[in-house]
Structure formats: C-alpha cells, structure tokens
Amino acid sequence: MGRLVKLVLGLWTKNSTGDWSFEVTSCYHGETIIINNNETFDSLVELIRIRLNLGILTPVALTYQLTDWMLVPDGTKTLPITLSCDKDVEILTSVRDYMSEAVLYVTSGPELVAKYEFLLRSPFTIGDTTYLEEGVSEAQHRQAILDLVGGHPIVCSKHILEIMFNEPQLLIVFHVALDIEMVHGLPNDDVQAQNATEFPRLTVDDVISMAEAGTISPEEEFYYAENDEVLYGEPMTIEELQYAIPIGQPASLLNHSTPL
Asked: Which strand (E) or helix (H) includes residue 147?
C-alpha cells in the first residue's frame, strides 16, 4: 500500500537565529508521487529523477520535516531530516500518517545541494581525505582547508568549471568553494602582526549570502600578498581560450566567479 506525497523543490535556509525554512523554487509547478511502504532509497531517488527529469548524475538531496507538534521543544530550529538509506525511507513511511499533508522536499543540482550540505556541515571527501569527520572541530577543519588551498584560492569562471567537471565533481568543488570563502573571512592564527578585528568574521549564513551575491574578486587586494602580481584581461570565448592554450599545456585561469 502506498500514499501520495507532494514534491516541493527548492533549498533549505537557516537564519541568524538558527531557524530553518524551505525556499520554494519560483518556477516550480508541483508534482506528486506514490511512496510504497516497502520503498527503497535507491528506487525512491530513481522515481524522483524520472518525475522531475533529472540527470542520472545530478546530485539530489531528499528531506522532510515533522509536523509542528512533533518538533517540540526546538520548533523550527530542528534540523531537516535527510534521507540517505532504506531505513530513512522506512521511518518516513511510518511518520507520514501523522502529517496533515505528506511533503518531500527536493534540492537538486551540485550548487544547491552543496549549499545545503554546507549548512549541515556534512562530511565530504577529496582523494583519500575526508573533511568534517565526526569529532573534528571547526578550527581543525579551517586549518585543513588552509592546508588544502595553500596561499590563496584560484578564482575560476563557473562556466569553465562546468566544462571541466561532471555534476558529482562540481558538488565537491562548490562545497570547498564555500569553505574557502568562510575560511578567508576569518583571521589567520599565524599572522600575529595583524589585528584580528581587521578581518570580517563570517558565519555559515554569511557565506551563503556571499555566494548568492558574488564571490571573491581578483581586484580585492585583501586576498593577495603585497608583492603578488595579478593579471587582468578581456573576456575570452571558449574557442579563443582553446586557441590560446593548447590541450596539454598548463594554464592559470583568473576570472570573476567561484574559487576552486
């Protein structure tokens, strides 16, 4: 036996007081699916991909929230529940009977899923290294990102990144980009000569807002050492770029978009 569940597309956000809310995509017209009691996580994801016409590699986050009376005492400060295995789907099918309207929230695409995972401080893996593992403090994670990036981040066009990486890879790229922006908004413990009050202290929500409004720009001298040389140029098309930089030759890309 199954039950009709409404799909709502968008992205979870968290305000400065820690309250969670789901912002619905403006172009969304609404879809519904039937979730059976014996539904598996993989079959549910496949069903949603088909219904929403999502690619097989497109990152997807499936979440839901309990009814208000089940969120006591934390209310809207309660974390959304993210589905990731068969057991999660089984729990969803058992609690949906207590919901006046069964709703499944869907966040799709590497950039939006990265923002949601960033808010959750979800672990992610690059090579053999996993970041934000259980027991790792924010200070330790900050240092790990600094070690990963080095001196200062390379700024690369989002369009170029989409050409270079597939969607699962872009999920990691966007995740790291958000961490880089947060880390570079905090004072460096090793720089004793500078007053920490000179640096902006950013929260996770601040970084999300920065990513929506714009990203680190090469013109901002804060991100470069005194003797660094920054090169500027006119925008290039893909054809011009391929002509100027033959395949196999290393290139340094500086543009106005996502730090990598």
From this structure: helix 138-149
